[in-house]
Every structure is written in C-alpha cells, then in structure tokens.
Amino acid sequence: MGKSKGSSGNWLMTYGDLMTLLLVFFVLLYTLTPSIDEGIFKNFVSHFQNNSGFFDAQNMKMEDFEAIADSVDIDEILEERVEYWQALADVLEEYEFSSEVDIEISSSGVKITLSDSLTFESGSSELLPGAEVVLQDVADQIDTTVIEIEVQGHTDNVPIRQSSIYKTNWHLGAARSVSVVQFLQQNSDIDPGYFKASSFGEYKPISENETETGRRRNRRVEIYLRDKLLMNSKNTDIWF
Fold it and tell me: What CATH class does 74-239 carry?
C-alpha cells in the first residue's frame, strides 16, 4: 500500500464538524435545565458571536435552541430514563423485603418510600441492616441528572415516651431523615449541597391512625430524587 504524500487537510473539516456538534449538544443540555434564565443564556451565547467557525450565534435566539430541542426525541430520552430507574426497582424486588419499598416515577422525579419496619426500630433513628442494603442500591443509582435529594421523615400520632431522647414526633421524624441523608451522602459521589432533610412528624398521614395497620403505614421515610430529565417531561406518572 502506498504512503500518502503530504496531508490533504480534509480531516480538519471532520474535526470542525465534531466540535460544532459537541458544542450544540452541550448548549442543548443547558437549555433543558429547569428554570433557565434567558439573560444568562444570552450572555453565554454572546461568547461565540464573533466566532462563526462554530455557528452563527449572532442571529441565534432562545427559540432557535428550543427548535433544536424539539428535534430531539424526548420520548426516547424519557423512556431510557424510566428504564434506568426501573433497573433499581428490579434490584429491590429481588430482596425478601421488597414489599416494604415503593418506587414511583413522575414528572418531578423519583419517589422512594421505605416502611418503618424496614428502616428503624420503634422510637429509634438508627438504620437497620435491611435499610442500609436498600439505601446502598439507591446511592449507587444516583447520578448527575439528579439535582436534589430530599428525605422526609413521617411518624404516626402516638406520643413519644418520656424516656425517649426525642421530645416529639417532629424530632423523631427529623432524626430519621437525617440518618438517611447521611447514609446516602456518605455512600454516593453527590455534592452534599444537593441533600435536604425534613420532618412532617405525624401531620402528613397517608392512612388512619386509629388502627395498627394505619399507624404502620404512616411510619415511613420518603426519598425524593429530583431528576432534571424527567422534570422536562409532562404526564409521566407511572407506578412501578
């Protein structure tokens, strides 16, 4: 095979096209970010207005990039994202305590509900071994599309015993949510600033407190993973 006599320079065209596509791709991701500020966007585009080698940003507006976003198969992206979280649901179903874990995906992200019997002993905020197994899988699944992780602690309306270190159900719910947040933060690569712990105590029940079954349902921890890809979709309420 003969050797090339000199460089034709054709590779530069391919390289330039690749750089252009990469730039458009990252700008597209930026426009998909929730609550994007148009002023910040215009300032971002202005950096490229004098460089027509990438694209003619002088005449590009927000609507132009929205048109690019519309050309992307959002349904396909959403389907892939649902499958991503379905993989977590499939893993949890393999455990014998899968009935104590519920996963819901919606247009705001993913909600994971853990029952009290799986997570804590009565009146305690120390995680049980089974809870740590589940939470480790959750921590492993959290990626950079998750922009906020909120953990809510919920209790029943049974008053706290005087011997307890917690004054009220507010305090118990808060301590439990903090325990979950600390575990997820320590076992994932997510910035600690993305985490939030809150408590509703006994004041957001999902069942009646007159029966043991109802009180058991009310004692729970809810984990909300705000997924920026799902937040850009509509009408995606699906139960696993």
Answer: alpha beta
Length, in residues, of the chain: 240
- CA–CA dist 16, 18 (Å, integer): 5
Q: How far, rounded to the nearest angstrom, does the alpha carbon of residue 239 sit from its chain's CA centroid? A: 16
Q: Buried (b) or exposed (e) across 85-115, using 16+ Cβ within 10 A?
A: beebbeebeeeebeebbbbbbbebbbbbbbb
Rounded to a whole number of angstroms, the CA Rg of the chain reads 24
Instruction: Please report which helix (H) or strand (E) contains residue 93, including its range.
Output: helix 74-93
Query: How far is the C-alpha of 78 from the C-alpha of 73, rounded, in Å?
Result: 9
Give me the pLDDT at residue 107, please: 76
- Give whole-number Cα distances, 194 to 3, 88, 148, 174, 219, in Å: 56, 20, 5, 17, 25
Pairing verdict, β 109-115 and 220-227:
antiparallel
What is the C-alpha to C-alpha distance for residues 182 and 201, in angstroms, rounded to an integer? Answer: 19
Of 182, 14, 216, give the one whose Cα is nearest residue 100: 216
Return the half-sphere exposure (C-beta side, CA atoms, 13 A cut-off) of residue 104: 10
> Could you tell me the sign of the dihedral formed by the alpha carbons of 88, 89, 95, 101, in that order?
positive
Mean per-residue pLDDT of the chain = 79
> Which two tokens mark 201?
């105590």
> Structural domain boundaries of the chain?
11-71, 74-239
- In the chain, what percentage of residues exceed pLDDT 90? 46
Give the sign of the dihedral formed by CA 133, CA 136, CA 142, CA 148: positive
Residues lower than pLDDT 70 in the chain: 1-17, 24-74, 232-240
